[in-house]
Amino acid sequence: MAFRTLDDLPADLRGHRVLVRGDLNVPVADGHVSDDTRLRALVPTLRELADRGAAVLVLSHFGRPKGHDESQSLHRVARALSSVLGRPVTFVHDCVGEVAAQESADLRDGDVAVLENTRFHAGEEANDPSFAAELAKLGDTYVNDAFSAAHRAHASTEGVTHLLPSYAGRAMQAELDALERALGSPRRPVAAMVGGAKVSTKLDALKHLVSRVEHLMIGGGMANTFLAARGVDVGRSLCEHELKHQALEVLAAAEASGCTVHLPYDVVVASAFQAGAEHRAVNVHEMAADEMILDLGPSAVEALADALKTCATLVWNGPLGAFELPPFDAATLSFARHAAAQSQAGALISVAGGGDTVAALAAAGVTDQLSYVSTAGGAFLEWMEGRALPGVEALRA
How far is residue 273 CA from its own chain's centroid? Predict the structure, then answer.
């Protein structure tokens, strides 16, 4: 995948104003940023541009405001970004118009500023050309460093790229390189682990993956729908019975493509969905009618680990069970550690993404042991579905 990066910009950017689309949509509790992961991801690009002499103006959305809403202002996030960046960050009280122009006019070479929430304006999500033009007036160059927002054709992610020379920031570049290694031109065999609660949210991804990977591993509540489609009585388990036909279509497509689908043959069941509930591991055909499947069983996890040992690449999105509720986190944590061990040994390229997956990796203590971990949610899933992402397409060389 050929796309323009910061390496394609002049080394000396003094006198140059660069609009950087970051993702500052971070959790805030009691007026303070409670998780600065996305801010830290933005630091390499901001530092490099500022150190090369550019005046840097950061664009981002925050929350889902309906018009101007002071509770959704980015001024608190600007303070947190300053702390993470280790240098002053100016806050500009709008992202377009006279206020934005006046307050950003005094920026000098090497300065960094955060513009106010782009979603305070209806033109952002509507990808209004006039709003995009107002944004473009503030910069000479555009850099997108927010893969997590690249699936949205909004003014600050797509519209502005038609008006300014556009490049990928370092975080975006790393993400695109990792995705290319995972499904674009991967080392084979490739395994895809797809988990989570519902088949309906990932059906398109499953349909796309069966023709791209050698092993499709299905976990979480999704597995229950596939088991039910194969005639297993899943009791009170979360199950989308209305999608059993679609599940059978995925299985048929996998068989036609030579893709092995891995479904659990033993599971962990309980009569109550609560932490520490009495539970047991059973064959899928031996669960009681009043029980529910809450995790994959130990034999199923061992089988997945054995299959993974034969693979050179892993793409992972979604937990294997109700990992947020011990003891039903065992399968997810175990699989994470197997993937990490193979990655550290150099035997596996592992790319994982999505909020629940990132949380599970953190719980397993292996976040930094996989090849690449994406904090993107919707964008990562749409990439797994094979969709073109508007914010990425605009950066192609």
Answer: 27
CB 13 within 8 A of CB 53: yes
Inter-residue contact 389 to 150 (CB < 8 Å): yes
Residues 90 and 193: their CA atoms lie apart, in Å, by: 43
Closest CA to 144 of 125, 164, 122: 164
Q: What digits encode the pLDDT tens for the residues 224-281?
A: 999 999 999 999 999 999 999 999 999 999 999 999 999 999 999 999 998 888 999 9
Active-site annotation holds for 38:
yes
207 is catalytic: no
137 has catalytic annotation: no
Question: To 10 degrees, what angle do helices 330-344 and 355-364 make?
Answer: 80
| Domains, the chain, ordered by start | 6-171 (3.40.50.1260), 186-384 (3.40.50.1260)
Active-site entry in 53, 110, 377, 378: 378
Instruction: Please indicate whether residue 244 is annotated as part of the active site.
Output: no
Sign of CA dihedral 379, 384, 387, 393: positive
Q: What is the pTM of this model?
A: 0.88
Per-residue b/e over 301-336, b at no fewer than 16 CB within 10 Å? Answer: bebbbebbeebebbbbbbbbbbbebeebbbbbbbbb
